[in-house]
Specification:
This protein is α+β, with helices and mostly antiparallel strands and about 425 residues long. It has 13 helices and 22 strands. It is about 30% helix and about 25% strand. A five-stranded parallel beta sheet has the order 3-2-1-4-5. A hairpin with a 3-residue loop joins strand 13 and strand 14.
């Protein structure tokens, strides 16, 4: 089996690591990859948005299957390009990828087909949007319609914050064309959770729930980011809750997409709020989450290749993924200045110290080799994953390893997983597991 992974972050490193465990061995390629991925795969210099170039790579290297990490190539129609050339790829078509690429499409679909989500309105004029916020006079959520790297959502506690978000998105165009329209919706209260599902167009197989931590700072303060960490499993999202999510959200959205002539095949990521009235959809993503995949994949006891084959062969209905009796915690180490203007080029040390430590995995997210030295090359630099019998143990391993790794300007949250343990602030020193 020859597999091409598209992307260069921690999610793609986690996918490469998971596929490297396959037996018989898989030959891996990654475009463009990163220094960590190069341990498992041949990295090839090609932009994730050069769709024809990526198809050429797949043909040249006789690739059997291509996996797409980031959302932008899927929204641009990479699955359609590969299909026209008879190349194997796992992911939704460009039309189906609009489920993530347009918040307006997603929310309208939910309203039309009765899929539970927050009440909302759509605006393409900043004056009208600001007037709505003033009239409401309560906390609201402002979302850019298009792709914004996970940063195009503002939970506005005040009218001024809401209007400021509208101005940033629609007037200043902080996210380019993604902010030409906005969705303004009610704030939901409850526990936030991410549930992934394998989809073959007609059936879904939910995976283990994960909790992401979007805000930059401890205590869920600061701006939204691409993700500061994740834990799995989620205590508040047991089998009965997953069954309800499957019945109320996953199966209905798969049916709705089929009715719209956009059958969905691939990995579907539902971002949900578990409210007192049941699960409510916050967003849909059309690929593995980042950093959720980094916490999820180390817990998979099934072969990742078997899971992907179930999608490709249309046998998701009979596929039951197996999971380790363990927990995982992923802590994202960021560069100073993230998420607005991260500073790069700082030398990284300490990875070799934690490499091979039981229960610790290090996934590269924004790194590069400069004159044979590993340096920071992005906002999210490294993903430190701890795996243990309990979440406390997994979290302890992740944080102790995170403290060993050094580079100028290193920043990370100290409370990843604290809410799942019932403590909003839990210092790593409280744990008992050494690295």
């Amino acid at each position: 089996m020859r597999v091409l992974i598209i992307g260069s972050g921690g999610r793609e490193h986690a996918l490469a690591w998971a596929l490297s465990q396959a037996s018989p061995p898989v030959t891996l390629f990654c475009a463009p990859g990163n220094p960590g991925i190069s341990e498992f795969a041949t990295c090839l210099p090609c932009s994730p948005l050069d769709l024809e170039g990526l198809a050429n790579i797949a043909e040249c290297h006789a690739v059997d299957l291509t996996l797409v990490g980031p959302e932008a190539p899927l929204a641009a129609g990479i699955t359609d390009v590969f299909a026209r050339r008879g190349l194997g790829i796992l992911g939704p078509t460009g039309a189906a990828a609009e489920l993530e690429a347009s918040k307006v499409f997603m929310k309208t679909l939910c309203r039309q087909y009765g899929i539970p989500t927050a009440e909302f309105r759509v605006f393409d004029d900043p004056g009208d949007a600001a007037a709505h916020i003033r009239q409401a006079g309560r906390p609201l959520v402002v979302k850019a319609d298009g792709l914004a790297g996970g940063k195009g959502v503002v939970v506005a506690a005040t009218v001024d914050e809401g209007i400021g978000a509208v101005e940033a998105m629609m007037v200043e165009r902080r996210f380019g064309g993604a902010g030409a329209r906005v969705v303004i919706e009610d704030v939901l209260e409850g526990d936030e959770v991410s549930v992934f599902a394998l989809c073959d167009g007609t059936a879904v197989a939910p995976l283990l729930p994960v909790r992401d931590h979007k805000r930059l700072q401890d205590g869920d303060a600061g701006p939204n980011t691409g993700g500061m960490g994740a834990v799995a499993p989620v205590p508040s999202c047991g089998p009965e809750v997953v069954d309800r999510i499957t019945n109320d959200v996953l199966e209905p959205v798969l049916w709705a997409m089929a009715q719209e002539g956009r059958p969905y095949r691939g990995v579907l990521f539902a971002g949900l709020m578990l409210t007192a009235d049941g699960p409510r959809v916050l967003e849909f993503n059309v690929r593995w989450g980042d950093p959720e995949a980094q916490a999820l994949l180390p817990l998979m006891d099934s072969s990742l290749l078997d899971a992907l084959d179930a999608v490709l062969a249309g046998r998701v209905q009979s596929f039951a993924p197996r999971w380790r009796a363990a927990s995982a915690a992923c802590v994202v180490l960021c560069a100073d200045g993230y998420p607005t203007r991260p500073r790069t080029g700082a030398p990284i040390s300490g990875i070799e110290t934690v490499a091979g430590v039981e229960g610790v995995l290090v996934f590269h997210a924004g790194t590069a080799l400069l004159e044979q030295r590993l340096v920071t090359a992005g906002g999210r630099v490294l993903n430190i994953v701890g795996v243990g019998r309990t979440l406390s143990e997994a979290r302890a391993r992740a944080y102790r390893a995170a403290d060993v790794i050094e580079y100028p300007g290193k920043m990370f949250r100290r409370d990843i997983g604290a809410r799942a343990l019932g403590k909003m602030r839990l210092a790593p020193a409280e744990s008992e597991v050494p690295v």
